[in-house]
Amino acid sequence: LETDLNNGIGVFANIETGLRRTDYDSLFGIGPTEETTDWNRTLLRKAETRLSVPNVGYFSFGQGNMAADGITGFDFSNTTATATNSVGDTASGELAVFSDGTISSQGLEIFFPTFDASRRFRARYDSLAKNGLSWSVSLGKEVLQDNNDNTYADAALRFETKWRQFRVKTGIGYAFNDESPDFLSGSLAMIDDQTGLNLTFAAGTNSTDGSYAYGKFGFIQDFFKWGGTALSVDYYTSSNPTSGASGADSWGFALVQDIDANQAQIYATYRTYQIDGIVTQYQDVKVLAAGIRFTW
Predict the structure, then answer these.
(1) Torsions phi, psi of 226, nearest 5?
(2) What gap in Å lies between CA 278 and CA 247, rounded to an integer?
(3) What angle do CA 51, 56, 58 make, to 5 degrees?
(4) Which positions ≥6 away from 243 have C-beta within 8 Å?
(5) What is the model's pTM?
(6) For a pLDDT cut of 70, what percent of the chain falls above it?
(7) Cβ(162)–Cβ(132) under 8 Å?
(8) Which of 94, 98, 213, 248 could covalently link to 111 via disulfide, CB atoms 3.0 to 4.6 Å apart?
């Protein structure tokens, strides 16, 4: 819900939630058929109100994005349907496997952090952009999970500009996470709209000596009349991403074809994962994925 008041102040209210689904196996008739339909607060994504005040900025309150959320995700490649700096998403939910074939208790995504902020119950302020530069701060608590009394505080700086056919967007953010590790992270995206060539870079470090860097090279061109074609290749490397691993690497190739008439994207990606264990080594992983995404 969004509306403007007579004094020029804008009011925006937003609620987003996930829904329970049946047990995964039961969808294919090969497992339990009992449905888990009870809604609980962990499924709540956003419940917030935002005021836009002329010549002042934006004030947000409620469950929503902290100030540094999304700071590592700037990307002009048009392959983000299947390839971002959050490389673990491609195999999210898959458990890492030790070299002897034993399945570990950690998902692959744990080894490929992005050090990006999250959603909390918070108060947030965003400044108005001046010459492409804006800043934001937030203070929040975790209210959707039990046994988390941390106080969270974020600050972020963003910059966006365009010169001739070149566009640049960048940002950096710092997140104070109380008893959890703090982190500093950011990203940079550049594109030449005339040639379709684009570059993406993201990096971050936390207070427990973990760090990562991510780079992507992309190309966008209108090979077909029904929509643009985007290609990209990327590489991710991390150091001390989590306990039990000294580092992790991933590289991937992505293809996204736009279908403008239906607001759809056909996508495909190939990605590899390598994890360097400290005591026990892990098996390498290769993922091939494809699909179609509709938006409206």
Answers:
(1) -85, -5
(2) 9
(3) 30
(4) none
(5) 0.89
(6) 94
(7) no
(8) 248
Contact residues for 102 (Cβ-Cβ < 8 A; gap 6+): none
- β-pairing, 103-107 vs 95-97, is antiparallel
User: In this predicted model, what pLDDT tens digit does every residue of 69-89 receive, in sequence order?
Assistant: 999 999 999 999 999 999 999
